[in-house]
Amino acid sequence: MKYSKFRDQYSYLRSLPKNYVDIDFQRFKEIETCKVSPASIVEIDNAKVVQYYIFSGYKLLEDFCLPVQLRGKQNAFKQLMKFYLYPKKHLPEAIWVIDIWSKNYFHWTLECFPRILALKKSGIDAPLLIPSHLYKVNYIKESLDDLGIQVITFNFRQSFIIEKLYTVTHDSPCAFDTSYLEDLKKFYFKIDGSKVINKARRIYISRRNASKRRILNETELEPLLIERGFEIIQMEKLTFKEQRLLMMESKVLLSSHGAGFTNMLYLPSGSTVIELHPDTERYNSCFYHLASALGLDYYYSFEQTDDANPQQANLTVDLMKFSKMLDLI
C-alpha cells in the first residue's frame, strides 16, 4: 500500500453555544477542543472487494471499509470466503469511500462525499465503485450526478480484483475538517448560488413521521413557532436540491436530533441553529460539532424525554422555557 499524506493533524477550539451555562460544563466545555486526524490518500495494489469489505491478500483492511465502532468485530474469514464464492470481475482502477453506514444522509454527506472531493482534488479520476442499492438512493445518485464522476455499480453477489484501488483514510467521528466543509459548500454554491432569492427564512424541521426522536407536543409547539416566523418543513418530502436551496435561503434552523439537521451545511455564514435535545446523561453532540466547525451560532435546549437512550428518545418541549430562549435570537 502507498500512502500520500494531504493533511497533517491539527486542532481548533469549538465555539461554545450562545446560551451556554456552567451547569452544562460536562456536555460542552470538555469537548471544546476539536482534534482533526491526519489524512492520507491510500493506493492499494490488487485489492479484493466483496460487499462492504476490502482485502489485501488475506488481510481485511478494516481502516478503509469499516467505521471505527465496528473494527475488530467482523469475521474476516467469512467475508473472504464470499470473495471466492462469488463471480469475480477485474478492474484496472477504482475509488472506494463507503461503509455500512453510507446510506445514512449524515454519513454520506459529511464522510463519504468529501472523501471523493479530496480524491478528485488530488488528481485521481478513477471511477467510483458503489453497491447498486446505495446508488439508487436519491441524494447519493444526485450528488454523484452533480459531480459528474463515472460510477461502477455492483450487487452483493459479485466480487472484484482491482489493480489500483484508491481511498482516503477515515476521520475521527465528528471531528470535522473545516477544509472538507469549505470544499463542500463551495461545490454546491457554484451549482445553486445563482438561484438563491433571500437569506432570511426561519425553518423548523419536523420529525412527525419518524419512528423516533419526535416532538410529542408538536401540535402545541407549532403555533408558537409560526407566530415567530418559522416555516414547518418535513425534509423527506423535498428533493436533495430543494433541501439545499431552502437552507441557502434560511437564517435560522431548528430541529431535534436527526439526519435532516445535516443541511445546516448549506446555511449562509452567520446563521443560527437551534437543537432540541433529550435531557439524558448520554449526549449526542455531533450537530454541535458541525455547527461550530461551520462557524454558525448554536443554541440548545434540553427537554423532557421518554427514553434514556438519546437515539430513541421522543421529547416534550417546555413551551414557556423554549419561548424565552427564542427571545434571545
Structure, described:
- A hairpin with a 2-residue loop joins strand 4 (39-50) and strand 5 (53-56).
- The chain is of the alpha/beta class and 329 residues long.
- The protein is globular.
- The strands form 4 sheets. Strands 1, 4, 5, 6, 7 and 10 form a 6-stranded mixed sheet that branches.
- 30% of the residues lie in helices and 28% in strands.
- The termini are far apart.
- Helix 4 crosses helix 7.
- The model has no long low-confidence stretch (mean pLDDT 93).
- The chain contains 11 helices and 16 strands.
- The chain has helices at residues 25-28, 62-65, 76-85, 105-121, 132-135, 138-147, 178-192, 218-227, 240-248, 286-293, 319-326, and strands spanning 2-7, 10-13, 33-36, 39-50, 53-56, 59-60, 88-95, 128-131, 151-154, 159-168, 201-205, 230-233, 250-256, 272-278, 297-305, 315-316.
Quick overview of this protein structure:
The protein has 329 residues and is of the alpha/beta class.
Q: Which whole number gives the mean pLDDT?
A: 93
Helix content: 25-40%
Output the structural class: alpha/beta
Number of helices: 11
User: Can you summarize the main beta sheet?
Assistant: 6 strands, mixed
Radius of gyration, taken over Cα atoms and rounded to an integer in Å: 21 Å
Helices and strands, in order, run as: EEHEEEEHHEHEHHEEHEHEHEEHEEH
Q: State the total count of DSSP E strands.
A: 16
- List unreliable stretches of 5+ residues: none
| Shape, per Cα inertia axes | globular
Q: Indicate the proportion of strand residues.
A: 25-35%
Terminal-residue CA separation: 51 Å
